[in-house]
C-alpha cells in the first residue's frame, strides 16, 4: 500500500499537524480537504482495523489548528477549552482477537481519533520531550518534528526530502550551478 500521508515526525500529533503542508507559504496545501481524506488519514495512521468514514473534516481542522497553536505559542483560553473538550472524548479500547492480535475499537472512531491526537499533544507539551520539538529548516517546509537524535541537532523533518534539497542547494551555490 502506498502511503498517502507523511509520518515519522516522532509523535502522532506532529504527523497530524503536518497535514497542512507548507503552512504559511504561498504553496500552502491542505491534505485533509474533505471527509474522505480525513478518513484516509485515520486509516493510514490510526489504530483501527476497519476503514473509518467520517461525516466531515470540520472537527479535524479545528483540532489540528488548536494543536498547532498549543505547540507553537501561547494558548488562548478558548483554544485551551477546545483542547480539553476533545481530550475528554472516549479513546479506543484494546481487545485481544482470537488470533492473538491486538485490535482497537471505539463506538465513535472519529471522536476517539481526535481524543488520541489531543491527548498526545497535551502529553508532549507537558513532557521533557517538548524541548526537542523543532521546526524543519527547509525553506519551504517548516513542519514540526521531534528531534530524537542523540545530540539534539537535527535540522530537517526528513533527511531524504528537506535535508537532501538543502544539501543540493548548498552544492549548487558553491559550484555556481543554477537550479
Describe it.
A two-stranded antiparallel ribbon has the order 1-2. The chain has a two-stranded antiparallel ribbon with strand order 3-4. The protein has one domain (12-131, 141-146). Helix 3 runs parallel beside helix 5 (109-125). The chain is built from 6 helices and 6 strands, in the order H-E-E-H-H-H-E-E-H-E-E-H. It starts with 11 loop residues before the first helix and ends with a helix. The longest helix has 17 residues, at 109-125. Strand 3 (93-96) and strand 4 form a beta hairpin. It has helices at 12-17, 35-45, 58-72, 77-87, 109-125, 159-175, and strands at residues 20-21, 29-30, 93-96, 102-105, 133-135, 144-146. Helices cover 43% and strands 10% of the residues. It is mainly α and 179 residues long. The mean pLDDT is 89. InterPro entries: ABATE, ABATE_dom_sf, Znf_CGNR. This is CGNR zinc finger domain-containing protein. Residues 132-174 form the Zinc finger CGNR domain.
Amino acid at each position: 500500500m502506498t502511503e498517502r500521508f507523511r509520518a515519522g515526525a516522532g509523535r502522532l500529533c506532529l504527523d497530524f499537524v503536518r497535514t497542512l503542508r507548507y503552512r504559511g507559504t504561498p504553496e500552502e496545501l491542505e491534505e485533509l480537504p474533505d471527509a474522505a481524506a480525513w478518513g484516509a488519514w485515520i486509516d493510514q495512521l490510526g489504530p483501527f482495523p476497519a476503514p473509518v468514514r467520517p461525516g466531515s473534516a470540520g472537527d479535524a481542522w479545528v483540532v489540528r489548528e488548536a494543536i498547532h497553536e498549543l505547540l507553537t505559542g501561547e494558548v488562548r483560553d478558548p483554544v485551551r477549552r477546545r483542547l480539553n473538550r476533545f481530550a475528554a472524548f472516549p479513546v479506543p479500547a484494546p481487545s485481544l482477537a482470537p488470533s492473538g492480535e491486538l485490535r482497537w475499537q471505539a463506538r465513535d472512531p472519529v471522536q476517539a481519533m481526535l481524543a488520541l491526537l489531543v491527548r498526545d499533544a497535551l502529553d508532549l507539551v507537558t513532557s521533557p520531550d517538548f524541548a526537542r520539538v523543532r521546526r524543519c529548516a527547509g525553506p519551504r517546509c517548516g513542519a514540526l518534528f521531534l528531534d530524537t537524535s542523540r545530540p539534539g541537532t537535527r535540522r530537517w523533518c526528513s533527511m531524504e526530502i528537506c535535508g537532501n534539497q538543502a544539501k543540493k542547494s548548498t552544492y549548487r551555490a558553491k559550484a555556481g550551478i543554477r537550479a
